[in-house]
Amino acid sequence: MKQHHCLVLKVGSSSLVSPEGEVQENFIRRISQELHALRQSGWDVIIVSSGAIAMGRILYNKPTRKSLSQKQALSAIGQRYIVNLWQNAFDAFGILTSQILLTRDDFKSRKRMLNFRNVLTELLSMGSIPIINENDALSSDEIRVGDNDTLGALVAVAAGATHYVIMSDIEGLYDKDPSRYSDGRIIPEVDSITDEIRQMAGGSGSAVGTGGMITKLSSAEIVTRAGITMYIVSHSLQHLAQRLEDQAGMGTRFKARKNISRHRHWIGFQSSPTGTLVIDDGAVKALQGHKSLLAVGIVEVSGLFKPGDTVEIRTQEGRLIAKGLSNLPSSQINLIKGKQNAQHRNILQQEVHSSVVHANNMIILEETKP
Ligand code: GLU
Q1: Whose CA is nearest to atom 2 of ligand 1?
Q2: Distance of CA 169 from the midpoint of ligand 1 (Å)
Q3: Lowest mean pLDDT among 29-33, 113-117, 202-206
Q4: Beta strand pairing status for 229-234 and 252-254?
Q5: Could you tell me the distance, in angstroms and rounded to a whole number, from the CA of residue 176 to the centre of ligand 1?
Q6: Is residue 92 within 8 Å of 32, Cβ to Cβ?
């Protein structure tokens, strides 16, 4: 049986609004045509659209300070306009769009995530195209996802999408920064995101959006780990439906990896770590062999956390090799770190879990030592 395909398309601010402040209505019309074609060949489609703040700036058209509250206000002005633009374009095909605005909290809480997933399923079965953005008007720095590359990745995972396409003014991942080197070339396919690939990403960004290549790579990490294929493509790319079907001619493709469980994915990419455990080389080996983390291998504890909180697990050189749910509070781990399990009872005056982080509640981010 043919797998049911679902695309999350992220459209960056720079594709919707030019640096001179012109609204790119032709682009929006062209994309809606492309997405209509894709839906006709059986795909589900979800759009993650940026541009609220950029559009708000154009509409308000007066100098503003760059304060958080002004950005929030501009986004509220621009967001309404952006969804109108999309709806006007999809009217040509009789397609009803819908709007969902999210913050980081919606991904952290499993209950809210379930709600989100349910409403998405319902909207798609009603034939609607959901248009999603961060709830910029109500989100302060602590609760923001912060950039729409990452937001789109989290949406793709939640939606159970098969494909995630990031469309922007960058044509793909270059082996060298194309703004500095004229011989930079697009890498057509990335199997896994190594340090070498990260170095290629440098820090390039565009004038109107907030994402750069770094956020695109961390998005690739999020989605490919959930079995989703990701592409970075130029907003001038045409015949998207055909190219997706052919799996060819699309900027840089990040190959989907083996799907991990939702539980592990949530630990690795949706929950927010509240502390760090630094572990010795023996423990690194054990974890990479899919064993649990024991107190004896822990060298350092930082942060204040409770049982059930997510913690980062790092090597002594500082490399992030895993994340997991702690069985113990940071205060207890501090007392038993480096100590064999047989000593724990005496030190803590109570019976505690034999592992600090159980292998089932852990995601390994670095499989083997480089
Ligand atoms: N959510 C922001 C907006 O709509 C865009 C964030 C981004 O560019 O990544 O203005």
Answers
A1: 50
A2: 14
A3: 202-206
A4: antiparallel
A5: 26
A6: yes
Placement of tokens 């602590």 in the chain: 142
Among 3.40.225.10, 2.40.128.270, 2.30.130.10, 3.60.40.10, what is the CATH number of 273-368? 2.30.130.10
pLDDT digits (tens, 9 = 90+) for 294-339: 999 999 999 999 999 999 999 999 999 999 999 999 999 999 999 9
Closest ligand 1 atom number to CA of residue 147:
9
Phi-psi label, residue 254: left if phi above 0, alpha if psi -120 to 50, beta otherwise: beta
How far apart CA 167 and CA 216 sit, in angstroms, is 11
**Helices 68-91 & 25-40, crossing angle to 10 degrees?**
60
* Ligand 1 site residues, Cβ closer than 6 angstroms: 12-13, 50-54, 75, 133-134, 136, 147-148, 209-211
**Contact residues for 107 (Cβ-Cβ < 8 A; gap 6+):** 113, 145, 154, 158, 270
The boundaries of every CATH 2.30.130.10 domain in the chain are 273-368
- The pLDDT of residue 205 is 43
Cα(336) to centroid(ligand 1), Å: 45
Q: Which of 11, 14, 133, 213 to mutate to test the pocket of ligand 1 (most atoms within 8 A of CB)?
A: 133
Mean pLDDT of 127-138: 96
| Domain ranges in the chain with CATH number 3.40.1160.10 | 6-264
Q: Taking 70 as the threshold, does the pLDDT of residue 32 lie above it?
A: yes
Taking CA atoms only, the protein residue closest to ligand 1 atom 5 is 50
pTM of the model: 0.87
pLDDT tens-digit series, residues 182-217: 888 899 999 988 878 888 777 444 444 445 888 999
Average pLDDT over residues 242-246: 90
Query: Which CATH number fits the domain 6-264, given the four candidates 3.40.1160.10, 3.30.1330.10, 3.40.50.720, 3.30.70.360?
Result: 3.40.1160.10
